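Re: that backbone. Tokens:
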């Protein structure tokens, strides 16, 4: 496969996944903003944490003077200058899809193209506060439709594996950022850990990754516990958006590429090392050494994997 084709497939899947992740992060911000603000900036801090989690805070502050719901929603959904806005993600994904149209199935192309056309017709002023949740649900559904089309129709060849790389590297990045920001921004300083606000925020974060019911099934907690939530989103491979689940799939696709090309690349070693770290992970040790430090190191390794893939397979 040509390097530019592998690159287009990688970034196509990564940007589709990112559009869903942006919708999930906005859903967190929206749900938490429904709770009365408690000191330290109230709702402003809720929306600021959404920007930080998405990695969009720097660009936002260069564009807007005030952090509020309307500005954050516009920036994360519609702003063309924000490369991670849903509009930018869908536009870039569609451009990549067009460049490798013959590598995609009809179902994959039509699901993505229809999503772009329908989203393009939505104007920022159409998205009132009561309509925001339904729009975010629609974005998530369209991303899942594309992924379902891919899983149900594409050959399990290098096209499939490079698509998997993009989707799961992006998903792992998003999960790690959500967890990291929770520990540093979401809990008000005057609220005890385990208090009402804290429990509501943890429940909201679980819902943002479609994990609230699954969490209760696994742990039987009447109220989410930070220790269990962190373990669920890091080390439980049953959870589809956990870090270990993402790297289980990445390791499998690395093995698939190795079998197809008959050689082992440095990127495979990076993915395997991260996978082995997660597989051997223990929450007692992670908390003892610092959850923030663990997550920051994970993000660094995840970014190194992207760089290594681009080098190994000559991404254009």
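Recovered sequence:
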């Amino acid at each position: 496969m040509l390097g530019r084709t592998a690159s287009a497939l990688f970034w196509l899947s990564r940007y589709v996944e990112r559009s869903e992740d942006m919708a999930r992060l906005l859903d967190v911000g929206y749900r938490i903003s429904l709770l009365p603000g408690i000191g330290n900036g109230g709702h402003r801090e809720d929306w600021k944490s959404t920007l930080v989690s998405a990695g969009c805070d720097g660009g936002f502050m260069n564009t807007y003077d005030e952090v509020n719901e309307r500005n954050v929603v516009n920036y994360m959904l519609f702003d063309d200058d924000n490369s991670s806005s849903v509009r930018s993600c869908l536009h870039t994904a569609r451009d990549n899809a067009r460049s490798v149209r013959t590598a995609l199935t009809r179902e994959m192309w039509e699901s993505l193209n229809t999503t772009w056309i329908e989203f393009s017709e939505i104007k920022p002023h159409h998205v009132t506060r009561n309509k925001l949740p339904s729009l975010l649900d629609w974005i998530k559904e369209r991303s899942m439709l594309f992924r379902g089309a891919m899983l149900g129709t594409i050959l399990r060849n290098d096209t499939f594996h490079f698509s998997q790389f993009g989707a799961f590297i992006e998903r792992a990045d998003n999960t790690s950022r959500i967890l990291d920001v929770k520990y540093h921004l979401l809990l008000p300083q005057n609220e005890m850990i385990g208090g009402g606000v804290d429990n509501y925020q943890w429940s909201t974060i679980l819902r943002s990754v479609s994990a609230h019911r699954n969490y209760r099934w696994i742990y039987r907690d009447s109220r989410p516990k930070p220790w269990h939530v962190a373990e669920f989103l890091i080390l439980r491979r049953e959870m589809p958006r956990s870090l270990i689940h993402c790297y289980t799939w990445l390791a499998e696709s690395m093995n698939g590429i190795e079998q197809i090309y008959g050689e082992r690349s440095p990127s495979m070693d990076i993915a395997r090392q991260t996978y082995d770290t997660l597989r051997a992970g223990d929450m007692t040790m992670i908390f003892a050494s610092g959850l923030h430090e663990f997550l920051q190191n994970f993000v660094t390794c995840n970014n190194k994997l992207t760089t290594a893939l681009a080098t190994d397979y000559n991404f254009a």
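Residues 3-312 form one domain. The chain has a mean pLDDT of 89.
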